[in-house]
Records
---
Amino acid sequence: MTSETPNTSPSPEQIRRAPKALLHDHLDGGLRPGTIIELARESGYDGLPDAAAEGADRLDAWFRSAADSGSLERYLETFAHTCAVMQTREALIRVAAECAEDLAADGVVYAEVRFAPEQHLEKGLSLEEVVEAVNEGFREGERRARADGNRIRVGSLLTAMRHAARALEIAELANRYRDLGVVGFDIAGAEAGFPPTRHLDAFEFLKRENNHFTIHAGEGFGLPSIWQALQWCGADRLGHGVRIIDDIQVADDHSGEVTLGRLASYVRDKRIPLELCPSSNLQTGAAASYAEHPIGLLRKLHFRATVNTDNRLMSGTSMSNEFEHLVKTFRYTLDDMQWFTVNAMKSAFIPFDERLAMINEVIKPGYAELKAEWLFQASPSERR
Ligand SMILES: [Zn+2]
């Protein structure tokens, strides 16, 4: 007696309903285009591109093409607009609430969303007020999601900008708001010329406080950046880390034998989480196509790989969209999706018992239910 459970690729609808965990998402990279237009009007910000006058869809397209353009100036301009309309308590609450709502509607059950408090001070808010407003927004979004029949839990990551000199101050802020909605710390911004070692005092402070942090490293820049983030700064996770592929050799012959260098071995041995963001990497040139994205090999080699969105607005993406691309490209099944999701949940910055409960009570049952759906489908002959 054998039963053959179908091990086929999930449909887009199943991908959306599957529970997902997200570790790398920027608050200022995920606004709804319609919200940008409304907030700009309310706050008197007149710097939006002309496309905004033609409506939310046109503005949406503008963001994507600016991010796709390959020009760093145009890419950075997109964030100047989103940050410009996120300068008041009300605006931050709204953006954070909608972020939680949108993620929940996409089937995300756990998310760590990051933002740089120092970028929201133009209209007089204090760093503390920024953090409190965003956290209030996330709580509001979680409530609205519940009312819609969705479940999500959102934690904040406080980001310091690599080119600025406020990392220690932001790290102290993250520590103060620990247990009050903030789950960790991050460093972001251009890698070249701004090594994470510039901010050692911040990392050393967090380590002394037994706190958690991730570092944007190994996106545009190669192995030295990953090495510094891990071995000098002590990062718990790597924001992207995709260039770890440079330390992995695949033989050209038929054997396809794989050899890991010391750093790649260390990353795999120590189960260092990689916050991979496929669509974002394509836009910044870190990979040429989904098929060539290192995630395929890293998954095969059992790195602690996770799937993330980075900037949903600029990349026109969502967690479901990222998985749809991966399912199509690598023929991933629900088991693969579950593997990435459990990886992310294991790597989250909330306490171990809560991560475990999320895996055992939410994620695994969610996938089990999806995997059993074929049992209840009418056979083709019974369908009309
Ligand atoms: Zn990022």
---
Amino acid sequence: MEKTKIIVTSTEDNTFCKCQLCDKTIAEFKNDIMIPSAEECYKSGNVPVPNFGWFCSQKCALDYETKFDIKFGRTKDGKVGQTMKTSTSE
Ligand SMILES: [Zn+2]
């Protein structure tokens, strides 16, 4: 199984992965390692959007879509983002 890579845009002093809408900190980066891991963030309800970034919740993702008039991908159950494989499913 291949791990999904999430591209996160970062500015010079930004070592935090933040919600793209409300700016809530989701995770921290140390030497390109995401803490907590993408998997942990996903499990705790944060929303990964491929080639875009993260939202802290489905609500923020939906609000962002409305605000900027765009559509993100959906998971099979109709949620924004993608279904991530977690190690427990291996
Ligand atoms: Zn948010």
